[in-house]
Write a structure and sequence with these properties.
Layout lengths: L1 E5 L9 H16 L3 E7 L13 E4 L1 E2 L10 E2 L4 H9 L4 E4 L4 H13 L3 E5 L3 H9 L3 H15 L3 E4 L2 H9 L7 E2 L13 H8 L10 E5 L8 H14 L4 E5 L5 H10 L4 E4 L5 E3 L10 E5 L4 H10 L2 E4 L8 H8 L4 E4 L15 E3 L3 H11 L3 H14 L4 H21 L10 H13 L1 H4 L6 H14 L12
Parallel strand pairs: 1-2, 1-6, 2-3, 6-7, 7-8, 8-9, 10-11, 10-15, 11-14, 12-14, 15-16, 16-17
Antiparallel strand pairs: 4-5, 12-13
Helix pairs in contact: 1-14, 2-3, 3-15, 4-5, 7-10, 8-12, 11-13
């Protein structure tokens, strides 16, 4: 089998969906005799060689200030599109409803390969954050839903994710396909835990709460911080560790300070700055910064006593399963996507979406670490799923889809308005070889048009030419 994996994030950008693509590519290549190619927008100075599969990086425009560090891919640059087409994939799996799915549909026009789309993220939240709640938001959501509807099969990472997608206007069928975890089941070695966490003030008898993820308020960070303020007022002893970087990190640090809670921040050079500007390790709350080393993340999950993830934004919450891999139970919002599979009080804890509910739960749990550790063991035994198991299930479904295609039983998708544009673009690309004999190639002209279009846009990022 030959599979094209497409996503709008890929290293050097590391987020949950980039991690999904990395694990799919690794396991398909190493375990399932599948030839893989990855397509993604190009980031400045990024290195895309050295992977055991080709990575095709197509031009992108800087929208990092608009969409929290992400660039927008430009799929009409034909040399890269042609490279993906020439690979002749049997199946195309796209993980983002924007540029990646447009590229998937262009490839399909040339190859006929079925497209699988996985809905990972509530993209409407990011669109509203960037553009506000107006007409443009509604139009972009409609365009993305139409793009998703143009795929042959739609997967969602949880039942709640499917419900959210349908609330945005998607009317087709959804299949729940669980994401996995690339942590091995089991706690990290004690020596590694001491190496990673030993320099901080984390007494063994004091409960250590942990959050890992992008530092964005819609992940429920204000709920955590306000709950910590309530614990401090009650005199409950605790330590709280935030691992991750993001646009709202500074604001959350200031909020902690405003509540009178002692605070440590790990600087980029590795030094630790205390609330009062004195180097030290006496803060109740630690902002440890971004951590991309998977073993070091395992160490943090092993050292903690309870994982806090009050997010209703996340459609799956891979970090909850990563915590479970290390024997760490989570506090989650009742009826959220991340809480699917959690039995309150057994393999995790469920609260209402407010700080008082979290504070009441943490106050109760802070005095019984043994209870927390028992719930963590249940989480490891009951909600953990490895990436190999997840990708094997996905690969089996690929085979079923390809069989349906050969037998002519693959359900026909509804035509979308973008189909005509994509078909036209695909037709143009077939003549690219002839255009290359002209003084100015087609794609050079398109690049000029793209540059002119970009110059007319609002100042989203820098105004350099497309990377």
């Amino acid at each position: 089998m030959k599979a094209a994996l497409l996503n709008d994030s890929f290293p050097p950008i590391i987020d949950g969906v980039a991690n999904v693509v990395l694990n799919y590519a690794k396991i398909l290549t190493e375990k399932l005799d599948t030839e893989v190619i990855v397509g993604t927008p190009r980031y400045p100075k990024a290195e895309y060689t050295g992977y055991p599969y080709p990575v095709v990086a197509y031009p992108s425009v800087d929208t990092t200030k608009l969409v929290a560090g992400y660039r927008a891919g430009y799929v009409m640059h034909w040399p890269e599109a042609q490279a993906l087409i020439d690979f002749q994939p049997d199946i195309i799996h796209t993980h983002c409803p924007a540029a990646s799915t447009l590229m998937a549909r262009i490839i399909q026009n040339h190859t006929g390969a079925p497209i699988v789309f996985t809905y990972h993220t509530k993209f409407d939240v990011d669109i509203e954050r960037a553009l506000g709640d107006g007409l443009m938001k509604k139009q972009i959501i409609k365009m993305m839903v139409d793009n998703i509807s143009g795929c042959d099969e739609v997967w969602v990472v949880s039942k709640g994710a499917g419900e959210n997608l349908k609330s945005l206007g998607y009317q087709g069928e959804c299949r729940v396909v669980d994401n996995g975890v690339d942590f091995a089941k089991g706690r990290a070695e004690d020596t590694l835990v001491r190496e990673v966490t030993g320099q901080y003030d984390l007494p063994e008898e004091v409960p250590v709460f942990l959050f890992v993820g992008r530092m964005m308020k819609y992940k429920g960070l204000p709920v955590i911080v306000d709950a910590l303020g309530a614990l401090s007022e009650k005199g409950v002893d605790y330590r709280m560790v935030f691992v991750g970087g993001g646009a709202d990190a500074k604001e959350m640090q200031e909020k902690v300070k405003s509540l009178g809670i002692t605070l440590d921040v790990v600087n980029e050079d590795g030094t630790v700055t205390h609330t009062d500007g004195v180097d030290g390790k006496t803060g109740r709350v630690l902002f440890a910064g971004a951590e991309h080393d998977r073993d070091r993340l395992r160490a943090w999950n092993t050292r903690a006593d309870l994982f806090l993830f009050p997010s209703v934004y996340d459609t799956n919450g891979i970090v909850v399963r990563e915590a479970a891999a290390c024997g760490l139970a989570s506090v989650l919002i009742k009826d959220s996507c991340a809480a699917e599979g959690i039995t309150d009080g057994r393999n995790g804890y469920l609260i209402e979406e407010n700080a008082s509910s979290m504070a009441a739960m943490l106050t109760d749990l802070a005095t019984d670490l043994e209870k927390l550790h028992t719930a963590g063991q249940h989480a490891m035994d009951e909600i953990y799923i490895s990436w190999e198991d997840s990708v094997r299930a996905a690969h089996a479904r690929y085979e079923e889809i390809l069989l349906q295609k050969r037998e002519g039983t693959l359900p026909q998708r509804k035509k979308q308005s973008l189909d005509y544009l994509i078909k036209g673009a695909a037709g143009i690309s077939k003549g690219t070889d002839k255009l290359l004999t002209l003084p100015r190639t087609f794609y050079e002209t398109m690049s000029d048009n793209f540059r002119e279009w970009k110059e007319g846009l609002p100042s989203w990022g820098n105004t350099n030419e497309p990377e």
